[in-house]
Amino acid sequence: MNVSxxxxxxxxxxxxxxxxxxxxxxxxxxxxxxxGMQRERESFVNTVMLVEDSLSVRYLHLLTSEVESxxxxxxxxxxxxxxxxxxxxxxxEGESEVSLARWQKVLAASGLHLAFYDMAxxxxxxxxxxxxxxxxxxxxxxxxxIQSMLAHRESVSEGQFAVVRLSERDGQEIPVLVCFxxxxxxxxxxVAAPVADAEQSRASLERRMVLGIQERLDSLELSRGASISxxxxxxxxxxxxxxxxxxxxxxxxxxxxxxxxxxLEGNTDGEENPVLYRLVYFKAMDWYVAASIxxxxxxxxxxxxxxxxxxxxxxxxVLSLFVMLVLTMRTLAPLRLLTVRAGExxxxxxxxxxxxxxxxxxxxxxxxxxxxEVGQLAGAFAHMVKALDENIRRLVDTLAVRQxxxxxxxxxxxxxxxxxPPPDGAPKSPGYSAAAFLEPAKEVGGDLYDFFTAPDGRQAxxxxxxxxxxxxxxxxxxxxxxxxxYALAEGLSxxxxxLRINERLAENNPSCMFVTLFIGLFxxxxxxxxxxxxxxxxxxxxxxxxxxxxxxxxETSGPLVGAMQGLDYEACxxxxxxxxxxxxxxxxxxxxxxxxxxxxxxxxxxxxxxxxRGASPEEVLRGVMQAVKEHRGTAAQSDDITMLCxxxxxx
Length: 651
What we know:
By secondary structure, the chain is of the alpha+beta class. The chain has helices at 5-90, 93-109, 128-133, 198-218, 252-259, 295-346, 356-363, 373-419, 470-489, 494-507, 587-590, 601-610, 617-632, and strands spanning 113-118, 123-125, 160-167, 173-183, 187-194, 227-232, 237-241, 264-267, 275-282, 287-294, 432-439, 447-453, 459-466, 515-523, 528-534, 540-542, 551-552, 572-575, 581-585, 641-648. 47% of the residues lie in helices and 20% in strands. The chain has a 5-stranded antiparallel beta sheet. A 5-stranded antiparallel beta sheet has the order 7-6-10-9-8, sandwiched between helices.
């Protein structure tokens, strides 16, 4: 079944949009439901708490009014008592009695009672209420004797108060607020005023609170089916709105917990019409505030909002898919043209001579004038086609040049290797065997080795490393090899040959190249090795006897060769015992690096030679090279590798 890219892209983007949108819609719906229900619950609880706070505030307000009324009465009694006391202290005894009688009439008109007792406690002015107040054994609400309050004390110079319950003619008892005002050296004034009964005050307070809270409830907007009620402890509904909640349906232990100060909240899940309820206790009036709301009233608005948002999201999803389809069709139309032109490129013969003509045919009618990504792609495609046409022609020319250069480099390599003797081309001599190995890092390199028989019959061994790589190093190397052979052919010693070579190389050396060089003359009969080392790597001498350690010949004759004229090189020598061999090498061996940039080093060379004590020169070279490759791993060869090994045969 072939499905077009347009269909695939539409299905892919549509699936991606749906995959991203549907979980968001579903999760959003769940979140909206939860948050909506939470808001409705909080709104319900806040409404109930508002009623609770309103009840508390109204109670405190009314209670404050009652207290202020009592305090106002006390202030009046104290003021009247002080005025009468001042009058008594100012007037004479006869005038005082007349003035007291007048004050008694004046106060009686205001519902107040006045009496006066001398220092002995006898009544000089009294009335029925005062006589009842001074009955033997009469006590106030605090249990203090009324008779004792007639005693003069400095601490009560501004008067003291007592509340006493007295009986009226109809047999009912009323509370009376009494002010005892001492008159210095005269007696005690008693001014009394009946006050509201506590039960009557409470009943009045309850009525006013019920009226106020009912007004508050009537002003509230409750959800459908919700109710708030203020219920007395005996089950009477004092005020409410909606269906009243009965306390009889609440277990007694739950009511007991509410009376201790805990708010009772919960729901009736599992019932036919579950509700959310809240019950609190108002201790000051022994009332309960009960509220309930159907759970459907909480979930309904949230579900309606979620359905609305789901419908909007679905419509937006369909519109997005439609717009995406139109844009996909319009976008992919130019891509089909690019596909056709790309197929035409595959049929082109890039080695032909069509040149620019082939590119013009391919890029014709491409939508390069568009400013969107398709236009950029078409422009890039057109530029690629033109560049490809031009680069193909350049590549053909470059390949031809490169092939010629490669041929010349191969020829140079052959010439360079022809200058050096074959690796197994060491002279045949009794008690002597030798082999060499050279692996350049490039086509041609700067390492050199040589072995031949000197005019005096000794075996010449030569190894060196030019400071550079490539063709220039190969030329410098070939010059060095030639100079070494000519110097030793004239019968010069190793140090004399090194001195002459240094002078010749340094005479005309504009690029300041140099070579590390080792020249040795070995006598197989005696084992003596005369040599000169121009800063070259120290050789290793290995005995077939495992008890004899591998040793390095560290003595050097002088510095680098070819760097500057006028240098001296000392003659050095060492000896090889029968069966011992000497390994000469360049720094391509000791400085071979692995992936971690760790050098192979002289210690690893010595370790490799430990296992090659009785090996032939060819086996020694193969063994050391194998150890170098294992250390190098996948890292590339960074320098030319050259080794020369010669052995003194055992007697």
